[in-house]
């Protein structure tokens, strides 16, 4: 054991010299191996060593070139381009004036952008989300800020390849390829989330490669550094966009393989526990902490009421400055005007309108509706007598009371009956608005069952916002329920409200809370001092809402949309995208088209890699000697699994997504594919046993081709103002809409 | 990577006979000897020490294995014994099997005549059998084989195809239906599952007592029993699944004599029965996946077997590709060919199919029509992608949007489908002034036309209003607008854009030709394309299909075809067009596509549907049939369901443990039992997973009986595990365990046989048998012990609400075609109710009154409406009020 540790230390200190592997000797038995084909390799597979005078200069060179391509003419167009209307205008504006809003993306990258806008502008003025920026707004600065992330991508590509032990020429090629891709370039020239996302993804890949490279010297400072960097990068990338979870999956799979290998190794239990614990801390706890911290900042900054209030529960809203909910009567009295919200997220407020159900009882519809509206107002009344809340004695609504609810606008009573089934959830009873307050109909009566109260004010009475209760129908014993099911078009696609017969009283669908409360005879109080919320529950709720709104972005599959494209088309670059809606003469046009040479050749490599694996393994299984040069097998697997696996994990899940997809969703996968391309060039150079010189020539030729491709499409990347007729030759595929759109009518 | 490395250890040094113990040992020892040098020095975890240790342990284990297996008295595990002798079943075993089959025949055929009423889905499959006997085309979501078998059984039994199996509970005897003969077919198939199970287990290498146990478990399993006594498809599916698995297992008994006669025979029979299973129900695809997974595993292992030359390897590969891919496809096509040739008459399934397809049926004659379409031609235009019918209009107005006349798709041919293609006002004027105004002018790609509704003189019109159902802002309403004498406005202008033509007639892409040209109609002002998406209009639209005009529509659902083309001026000898005759493959592909679409649309909830996660522990059964004091309820034998599930879970657990032990270098062989366990229980467990897990992905309604093929595989796994786990026990203990299981099964069979056979029961017995609260058969149905008459319904206290049995598979047949034109070319007006394209909606509608028929062609009424329209036009829509030209700013 001590000998092994000693060996490990020696390994850390110096480069491990790959010991020549003994080739399996021929079998004694009659066997049918494939053709023998010895491989001679002049280039040994060993760990790269950093050489400042070479590597340092190369990285610097890449950074400078990259900076030029990302920054050249960056302020040319003063139009709000593509999603800049969200990130540079709307959301950052709302971060700056602290108003609460809702979005499908996690907050980190948007917070960074808002910070840059704060530095550039300082004011929290509102701007038009379309058209041009105000003349005194320094949009160039905010664009430069996001471009910084884009600039970082090229050196990161070099470093990643370096840690994957590719040769310097290939590392440099990888950096150049990242520079020479038009799509990567154009998407980092605007204030969008893609540049930060790509940068953090690349950082995660780089650190896991570095971590892999230090695996011989576990628990050394370098090992810890890379491990923690990986965790931090994972936290940052998933706080920028949920696509970052694919990077988490990659690192997770990598770690699982690593742990499995360790399991096969008979290491002392204490060492194994240390390994395991270190990974749990760095790769699970640290990213979660960063992710949650970004939300904590998000909540802390957005302290005022804003357009996103309605997505959060009433208790959260009541704590926002300026919210209508934070100042209202507290104890609900008979005769109060109420807005009732279902605790089931997405079901909205209890609502009714003068439209009838098309069948069933054909009485007035009762639905769930998420927007504030006077049709959400209900008057809570006692049973039996008619309402007169200006003169009746002021009585609180208590647990166990039987009440009636009158829809204020139509004076119809909340009603349910045994005779008719609900329209979508057919196991439940229908809920309608029916009858007049003076009618004595027991089908209008509902019993209050308090589920949960704020402990500091609990007294068995119903309070605004803090009391969760059920409404149990008096005659059928069912529970008023809104499970978030959408109604057909006759119900205006609002959510269904039914009377649930499956008695699951704890289910959120059956719980209601008074969101708005009005009663002229009861004084209003400041709810902010009464209501409490916890960060964890807000955090979880917001993430659920993000998932919901993400899934709600469903495209019409029959409609051709020149912005959307399906995942299958991405690697082949079939539907590039116009970054500006306007494509008229004189407009500065930006076109999101990748460098086809890079896209197509990298896609080819992604298809090739698994075939290569299969090919080599078949030969090995058939006992062909000399399939691998010493160390080559491990190198081929260690580097390839990260790059190809990353490509798969960042690409395939999009096929399973129902939401709209755009071509730039492929960019993270493209980054992996580009690195894989460089890796394959390196691999073939080694297998062909090219010397230093020919290798440089090959790599240089590749680089020149790719750069030529970049220059050819550069006008569309840097902003094109000339005549479209000159771009005819740049429309390489008939599906591209650079020049003309084949679907235009 | 890792598994490949392990493979190298196992195969490379002693590769000539992977199954031979001795060589494995030598292989292991050679690995042990070579360890220090064969490992990558680059490996991070210093695996050298570990591997050395492993191989030592492995060696000692291997050695022990050999000792034990040779001394083992009970059937030895070692594969070597099976290596050289041919698989056979001894005479004693045959005799045992004979007795078991006799017992099973009694169990399976007893009271087959009961009940003499239509039960559950007999509603559908009985009806379909009748359609085969009548030869009328129908549509169903399942492939044809099982249904044709019922038809054949019905024919043999003397069923004439008249009785229509309309609803559950109809009496067979009164209608004189030979239902026993029809039920005998699935019952015999179910019965043959007993010997099939026996042979399969024997071929998988299990001992005789285990084979007998398996056969008896299958015999007494209540769910398999209930399902195979009725006119339902599952018995055939399970039968062919069983046959496939049996032949597949037999195929492996021949693996040491590759390419021999038996080897080929078993392989081919596997393929044929795969095809048969697939032709019964698409669940057969899961079986193909199961066999496929095992084939891949087998081929992968052969790859590392150096005793097989590359040439032989290719032969192995090709043999399997032919037998397991080509043969099933051919069988599937063959049964469809039979299906199509039996169903040669037009029937209620027509509406699901394309005109090309319909044209192959007797009684449908879409005939031929003049090919070239000219200005002034009166045409009928069919929507190409949906088979939903013809562009149609009638004298009813929209109740939303512009409130102008409705334009819809309508599935039946009547005069309201006729449109006259005319020139625009300006073109017409120019044409009149030209040299020969009477010359016919063919419509070309890019021409602008107006479509005049022949009967009501409205023009096809669109404007910036939202359609009634699809209310997206990129959709425009399409209406009929105008009156006789009104010259129209520019919102009536449509540009013809021909996108596809018949490849044999190159001109059909440039000039508009009936049937051959598929074209879009693009509204000139709004830049939208005439579109339909099978959305139904509300009742005021007679539930016909909505037509809208969609901006930026993708191509498929905007394509139209001219089907009939009438123009008095066309010379008699003008070329004609008719629908192409599709080939068998095209017909099968089309039928398959429609089946797929409709199948996915079956999402309506059913009182007895269940989700897959509840199946293995049988949360709930299904009510098939009920009468005053008897009922049939599909419920399995609990002990078999639960234990078989446990057996599969144990297999998975053992694999996980073994995986980790392998990683540590212990390559346990457990006296050869591990290999046996993998080959037998492994195969059934993988099959079980593949027959169960895919259901989670299905959105359609699912039922408990979908689990039955998986259940049968799980029973194989259960018996296989039991056999292997008890081999090392003494013979006595082993037999006690097996008998206990058998006794428990038989006990439960008797306990639940009342609801399997629909025989009398008592309330007490019923209540006692409800082990799970969720089993919802109705005990109040049965008389109390000692009571002579059933309890009157009014006296039932706290009766739980039990849904009544309803058919599981929804009815998807359309209404019969009511009219075609008579000889004079006039339509006879017996307008049928609006046609149903979406079976789901059809289902919803089953209990509603028939939709109102549009009242059209009443000329007096028409004149009145004309007047109203004119009035409206002067006030609401002055000529071109909504002709504002849409600008497309995104275009240069």
UniProtKB/TrEMBL annotation, chain A:
Question: Which keywords annotate this record?
Answer: Glycosyltransferase, Transferase
The catalytic activity of this protein is classed by the Enzyme Commission as 2.4.1.109
The answer on whether this UniProt entry bears the keyword Glycosyltransferase reads: yes
Question: Has the keyword Transferase been applied to this entry?
Answer: yes
Q: What is this protein called?
A: Protein O-mannosyltransferase 2
Gene symbol?
PMT2_2
Automatic annotation (TrEMBL), chain B:
Q: Which domain of life is it from?
A: Eukaryota
* The protein's name in its UniProt record: Uncharacterized protein
């Amino acid at each position: 054991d001590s000998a092994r540790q000693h060996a490990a230390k020696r390994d850390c200190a110096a480069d491990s010299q790959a010991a020549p592997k003994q080739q399996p000797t021929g079998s004694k038995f009659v066997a049918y191996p494939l053709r023998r084909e010895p491989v001679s390799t002049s280039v040994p597979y060993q760990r790269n060593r950093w050489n400042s005078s070479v590597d340092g200069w190369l990285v610097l060179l890449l950074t400078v070139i990259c900076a030029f391509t990302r920054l050249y003419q960056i302020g040319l167009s003063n139009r709000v381009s593509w999603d800049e209307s969200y990130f540079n205008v709307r959301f950052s504006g709302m971060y700056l004036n602290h108003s609460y809003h809702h979005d499908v993306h996690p907050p980190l990258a948007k917070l960074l952008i808002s910070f840059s806008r704060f530095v550039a502008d300082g004011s929290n003025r509102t701007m038009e989300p379309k058209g041009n920026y105000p003349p005194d707004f320094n949009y160039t600065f905010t664009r430069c800020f996001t471009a910084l992330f884009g600039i970082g991508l090229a050196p990161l590509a070099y470093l990643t390849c370096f840690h994957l032990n590719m040769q310097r020429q290939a590392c440099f090629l990888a950096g150049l390829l990242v520079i020479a891709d038009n799509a990567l370039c154009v998407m980092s020239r605007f204030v969008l989330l893609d540049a930060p996302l790509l940068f953090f993804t690349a950082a995660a890949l780089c650190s896991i490669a570095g971590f892999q490279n230090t695996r011989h010297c576990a628990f050394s400072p370098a090992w810890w550094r890379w491990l923690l960097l990986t965790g931090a990068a994972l936290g940052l990338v998933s706080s920028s966009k949920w696509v970052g979870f694919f990077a988490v999956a990659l690192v997770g799979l990598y770690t699982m393989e690593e742990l499995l290998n360790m399991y096969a190794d008979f290491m002392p239990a204490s060492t194994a526990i240390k390994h395991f614990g270190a990974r749990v801390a760095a790769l699970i706890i640290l990213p979660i902490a960063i992710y949650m911290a970004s939300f904590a900042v998000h909540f802390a900054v957005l302290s005022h009421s804003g357009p996103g209030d309605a997505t959060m529960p009433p208790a959260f809203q009541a704590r926002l400055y300026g919210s209508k909910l934070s100042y209202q009567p507290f104890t609900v009295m008979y005769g109060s005007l109420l807005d009732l919200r279902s605790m089931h997220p997405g079901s909205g407020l209890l609502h009714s309108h003068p439209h009838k159900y098309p069948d069933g009882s054909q009485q007035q519809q009762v639905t769930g509706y998420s927007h504030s509206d006077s049709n959400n107002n209900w008057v809570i009344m006692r049973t039996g007598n008619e309402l007169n809340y200006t003169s009746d004695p002021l009585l609180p609504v208590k647990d166990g009371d039987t009440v009636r609810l009158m829809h204020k606008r139509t004076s119809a009573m909340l009603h349910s009956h045994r005779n008719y089934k609900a329209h979508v959830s057919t196991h439940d009873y229908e809920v309608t608005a029916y009858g007049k307050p003076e009618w004595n109909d027991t089908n209008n009566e509902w019993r209050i069952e308090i589920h949960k109260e704020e402990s500091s004010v609990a007294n068995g009475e119903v309070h605004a916002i803090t009391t969760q209760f059920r409404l149990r129908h008096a005659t059928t014993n069912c529970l008023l329920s809104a499970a978030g099911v959408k109604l057909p078009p006759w119900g205006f696609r609002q959510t269904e409200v039914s009377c649930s017969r499956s008695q699951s009283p704890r289910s959120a669908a059956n719980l209601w809370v008074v969101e708005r409360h009005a009663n002229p005879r009861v004084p209003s109080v400041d709810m902010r001092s009464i209501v409490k919320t916890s960060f964890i529950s807000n955090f979880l709720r917001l993430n659920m809402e993000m998932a919901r709104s993400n899934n709600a972005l469903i495209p019409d599959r029959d409609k051709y949309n020149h912005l959307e494209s399906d995942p299958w088309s991405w690697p082949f670059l079939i539907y590039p995208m116009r970054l500006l809606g306007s494509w008229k003469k004189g407009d500065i046009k930006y076109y999101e088209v990748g460098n086809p040479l890079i896209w197509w050749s990298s896609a080819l490599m992604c298809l090739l890699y698994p075939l290569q694996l299969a090919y080599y393994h078949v030969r090995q299984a058939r006992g062909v000697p000399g399939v691998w040069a010493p160390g080559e097998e491990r190198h081929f697997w260690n580097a390839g699994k990260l790059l190809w696996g990353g490509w798969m994990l960042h690409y395939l899940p999009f096929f399973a997504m129902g939401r709209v997809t755009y071509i730039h969703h492929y960019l993270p996968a493209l980054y992996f594919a580009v690195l894989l391309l460089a890796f394959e060039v390196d691999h073939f150079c080694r297998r062909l046993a090219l010397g230093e010189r020919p290798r440089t020539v090959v790599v240089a030729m590749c680089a020149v081709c790719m750069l030529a491709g970049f220059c050819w499409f550069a006008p569309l990347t840097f902003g094109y103002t000339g005549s479209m007729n000159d771009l005819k030759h740049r429309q390489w595929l008939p599906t591209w809409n650079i020049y003309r759109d084949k679907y235009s009518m | 990577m890792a598994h490949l490395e392990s493979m190298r250890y196992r195969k490379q040094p002693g590769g000539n006979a992977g199954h031979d113990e001795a060589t494995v040992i030598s292989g292991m020892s050679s690995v042990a000897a070579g360890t220090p040098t064969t490992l990558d020095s680059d490996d991070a975890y210093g695996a050298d020490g570990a591997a050395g240790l492993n191989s030592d342990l492995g060696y000692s284990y291997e050695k022990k294995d050999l000792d034990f297996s040779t001394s083992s008295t009970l059937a030895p595990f070692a594969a070597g014994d099976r290596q050289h002798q041919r698989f056979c079943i001894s005479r004693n075993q045959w005799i045992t099997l004979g007795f078991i089959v006799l017992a099973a025949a009694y169990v399976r055929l007893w009271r087959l005549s009961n009940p003499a009423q239509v039960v559950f889905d007999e509603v559908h499959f009985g009806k379909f059998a009748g359609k085969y006997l009548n030869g009328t085309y129908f549509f169903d979501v399942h492939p044809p084989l099982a249904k044709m078998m019922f038809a054949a059984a019905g024919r043999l039994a003397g069923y004439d195809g008249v009785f229509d199996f309309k609803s559950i509970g109809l009496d067979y005897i009164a209608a004189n239906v030979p239902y026993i003969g029809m039920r005998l077919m699935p019952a015999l198939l179910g019965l043959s599952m007993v010997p099939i199970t026996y042979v399969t287990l024997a071929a998988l290498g299990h001992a005789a007592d285990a084979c007998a146990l398996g056969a008896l478990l299958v015999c007494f399993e209540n769910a398999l029993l209930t399902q195979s006594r009725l006119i339902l498809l599952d018995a055939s599916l399970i039968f062919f699944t069983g046959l496939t698995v049996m032949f597949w297992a037999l195929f492996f008994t021949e693996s040491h004599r590759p390419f021999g006669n038996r080897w080929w025979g078993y392989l081919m029979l596997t393929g044929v029965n795969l095809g048969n299973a697939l032709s019964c129900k698409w669940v057969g695809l899961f079986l193909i996946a199961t066999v496929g997974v095992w084939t891949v595993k087998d081929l992968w292992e052969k790859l590392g077997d150096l005793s097989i030359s590359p040439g032989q390897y290719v032969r192995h590969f090709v043999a399997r590709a032919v037998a397991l891919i080509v043969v099933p496809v051919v069988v599937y096509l063959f049964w469809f060919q039979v299906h199509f040739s039996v169903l040669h008459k037009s029937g209620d399934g027509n509406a699901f199919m394309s005109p090309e397809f319909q044209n192959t049926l007797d009684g449908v004659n879409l005939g031929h029509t003049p090919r070239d379409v000219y200005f002034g031609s009166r045409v009928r235009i069919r929507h190409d992608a949906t088979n939903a019918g013809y562009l149609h209009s009638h004298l009813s107005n929209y109740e939303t949007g512009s409130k102008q006349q409705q334009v819809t798709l309508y599935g039946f041919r009547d005069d309201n489908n006729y449109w006259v293609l005319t020139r625009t006002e300006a073109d017409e004027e120019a044409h009149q002034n030209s040299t020969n105004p009477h010359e016919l002018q063919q419509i070309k790609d890019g021409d602008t036309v107006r479509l005049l509704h022949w009967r009501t003189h409205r023009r096809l019109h669109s404007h910036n209003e939202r359609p009634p159902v699809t209310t997206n802002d990129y959709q425009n309403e399409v209406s009929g607008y105008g009156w006789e004498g009104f010259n129209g406005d520019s919102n009536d202008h449509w540009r013809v854009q021909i996108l596809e033509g018949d490849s044999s007639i190159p001109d059909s892409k440039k000039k508009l030709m009936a049937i051959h040209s598929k074209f879009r109609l693009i509204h000139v002002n709004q830049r939208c394309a005439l579109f339909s998406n099978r959305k139904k209009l509300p009742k005021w639209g007679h539930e016909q299909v909505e037509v809208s005009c969609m901006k930026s529509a993708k191509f498929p659902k905007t394509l139209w075809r001219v089907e009939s083309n009438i123009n008095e001026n066309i010379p008699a000898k003008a070329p004609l067009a008719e629908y192409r005759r599709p080939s068998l493959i095209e017909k099968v592909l089309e039928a398959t596509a429609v089946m797929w679409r409709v199948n996915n649309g079956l999402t309506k909830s059913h009182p007895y549907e269940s989700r897959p996660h509840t199946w293995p522990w049988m949360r709930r059964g299904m009510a098939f049939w009920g009468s005053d004091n008897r009922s049939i309820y599909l419920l399995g034998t609990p002990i078999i369901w639960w234990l078989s599930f446990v057996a599969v879970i144990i297999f998975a657990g053992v694999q996980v443990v073994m995986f980790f032990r392998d990683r540590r270098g212990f390559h346990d062989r457990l006296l050869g039992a591990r290999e046996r366990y993998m080959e037998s229980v492994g195969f059934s467990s993988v099959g079980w997973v593949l027959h169960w897990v895919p259901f989670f992905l299905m959105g359609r309604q699912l039922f408990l009986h979908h689990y039955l093929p998986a259940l049968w595989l799980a029973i194989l796994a259960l018996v296989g595990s039991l056999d292997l786990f008890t081999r090392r026990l003494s013979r006595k203990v082993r037999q006690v365990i097996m008998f206990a299981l058998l006794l428990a099964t038989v006990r439960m069979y008797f306990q639940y046989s009342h609801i399997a056979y629909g025989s009398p029961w008592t309330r007490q017995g019923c209540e006692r048998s409800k082990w799970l609260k969720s089993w919802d058969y109705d005990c109040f149905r049965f008389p109390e012990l000692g009571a002579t008459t059933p309890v009157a319904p009014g006296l039932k206290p706290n009766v739980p609400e039990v849904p009544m049995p309803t058919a599981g598979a929804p009815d998807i047949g359309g209404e019969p075609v009511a009219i075609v034109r008579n000889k004079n070319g006039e339509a006879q007006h017996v307008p049928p109710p609006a046609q149903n394209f979406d079976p789901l909606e059809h289902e919803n509608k089953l209990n509603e009154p028939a939709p109102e028929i549009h009242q059209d062609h009443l000329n007096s009424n028409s004149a009145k409406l004309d007047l109203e329209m004119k009035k409206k036009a002067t006030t609401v829509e002055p000529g071109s009020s909504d002709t504002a030209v849409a600008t497309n700013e995104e275009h240069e």
